[in-house]
Write a structure and sequence with these properties.
The structure is a single chain. This protein has two domains: about 140 residues, 60s Ribosomal Protein L30, Chain: A (2-Layer Sandwich); about 250 residues, 2-methylcitrate dehydratase PrpD (Orthogonal Bundle), CATH 1.10.4100. Helix content is about 55%, strand content about 10%. It has 17 helices and eight strands. The chain has a six-stranded mixed beta sheet with strand order 3-2-4-5-6-7. Strands 1-8 form a two-stranded antiparallel ribbon. α12 runs antiparallel to α13. The longest helix is centred in the middle third of the chain and has 22 residues. The relative contact order is 0.12.
């Protein structure tokens, strides 16, 4: 592999596999709000938050971390203002104390923060304005959860940055399944030890917390208690339990993938369980996790950051590919696992971050493990069947087109239903 290509893949891993506290959409709001207060230089009298529909969708029903069980855009923004550490980025709310929560509840009651839906903007868009008697400050986050694209104080633009659009980002990556597998097999182990090791450590910790059965719909806990202890159940339950905890207020951090903690847990935890089952060493396990992470990123970048396409599917494709790798599968078998998974569950809808994400992770991983089993048996869905194309790259691009373009209208209608604006009778 050419050194420049290898460095590109290492750069992707280092930039994508970062630590976050809680669901990344409310955290993006808290981050923008904390930065806006920092720019203002004093505590504001009021705050206004404008969000894209996809941000609204992913914040509406998920517990904001360190909030004491509260949900919603307003509380995410208020906590960011009263006690957020903007310099901590996706861990902005790690510094929240009980005193901050008491102050935030009081501000929430007096409608300190007003929220509105922003239209005609990027799918990932947060605009926070804070006002004091003499000053105002505005911070816009767009395109990525911590990518500040504009900072304004008292009408003066202090900073402006035009983010790359989706097409430019995808083209810049120029990833393929063949390169991903080659990179995973040949990269210097020391170059991936830290970034992959951090993901394994943190994500396993929150999974263990979720398996206590104290969070959400207890999907991971129920899978283990109802269906036994075989490797398939352990693998699926591990990821589902992490989501149970994370979607329902657990303050433990996770290492994300494609901007999502749920996807970060889905790509990593099942692979770690299978590696233990097979007795794989640390190096082989980490190389499998490289495949899982990069395959998920490859698929998701063709779809876009936030859409009506559930990211658990792309993450499960990565996990299935890595499991096939651990079983000694060839490039063709690894690719066929991805095809089989997309052919099965490629249409799962994203209707926001919430407790049922754990169930969607479980369904997606069940399909991925089936896809792996089929592939190892020499079975793959053919190009004459539905959205499946003549090879894995064309299939990924077709699924990306459906998720990005075909489901754009679906995304709007999902939001209408969630906000009670749809005529469903």
């Amino acid at each position: 592999m050419e050194p420049a290509v290898r460095e590109n893949y290492l750069s992707v891993l280092r930039s994508e596999l970062i630590t976050a506290l809680g669901c990344t959409e409310p955290i993006a709001i808290a981050y923008a709000a904390a930065r806006a207060r920092q720019v203002l230089g004093e505590f504001p009298e009021r705050a206004t938050v404008l969000c894209s529909g996809n941000i609204v969708k992913n914040v509406k029903s998920v517990t904001v971390p360190n909030s004491g069980g509260m949900v919603g855009i307003e509380i995410a923004a208020i906590l960011g203002i009263v006690g957020g550490d903007a310099d901590a980025k996706l861990e902005v709310l790690s510094s929240i104390t009980e005193a901050h929560r008491i102050q935030a509840r009081a501000l929430l009651k007096r409608h300190f923060c007003q929220c509105r839906l922003a239209t005609g903007v990027d799918n990932l868009y947060v605009d926070v304005t804070v006002e004091s008697p003499e000053h105002t400050a505005q911070v816009i986050v767009m395109n990525r959860h911590t990518l500040i694209t504009k900072v304004v104080k008292d009408g003066e633009v202090l900073f402006a940055h035009e983010p790359m659009n989706r097409e430019a980002r995808v083209k810049g990556l120029d990833m393929t399944m063949a390169e991903i597998v080659e990179f995973a097999r040949t990269v210097d182990f020391e170059d991936i030890r830290e970034v992959i090791g951090r993901q394994a450590e943190l994500n396993q910790a929150i999974s263990q917390e979720g398996l206590t059965g104290k969070y959400g719909a207890r999907i991971g806990y129920l899978l283990r208690s109802a269906y036994g202890d075989d490797i398939k159940i352990r693998a699926i339950a591990a990821a589902a339990a992490g989501s149970d905890a994370r979607m329902n207020g657990c303050a433990l951090p996770v290492v994300i993938n494609s901007g999502s903690g749920n996807q970060g847990m889905t790509v990593s935890l099942p692979v770690l369980e299978y590696a233990k089952e097979l007795g794989a060493g640390q190096e082989q396990t980490y190389r499998a996790l490289v495949i899982s992470n990069l395959v998920s990123i490859h698929i998701k970048r063709n779809i876009g950051d936030l859409s009506a396409f559930c990211g658990a599917v792309s993450a499960a494709c990565g996990a299935g590919a890595a499991i096939t790798f651990l079983y000694g599968g060839s490039l063709e078998q690894i690719s066929n696992t991805v095809i089989n998974t997309l052919a099965n569950v490629g249409g799962i809808l994203c209707d926001g971050a919430k407790a049922s994400c754990a169930a969607k992770i479980a369904s997606s991983l069940n399909a991925a493990i089936l896809g792996h089993t089929m592939s190892m048996a020499g079975i793959v869905f053919g190009s004459e069947e539905g959205i499946v194309q003549e090879d894995v790259e064309r299939t990924i691009k077709s699924m990306g087109y459906i998720g990005r373009t075909g489901m754009a209208g679906t995304d709007v209608e999902i939001l209408k239903v969630m906000l009670g604006e749809a005529q469903v009778d």
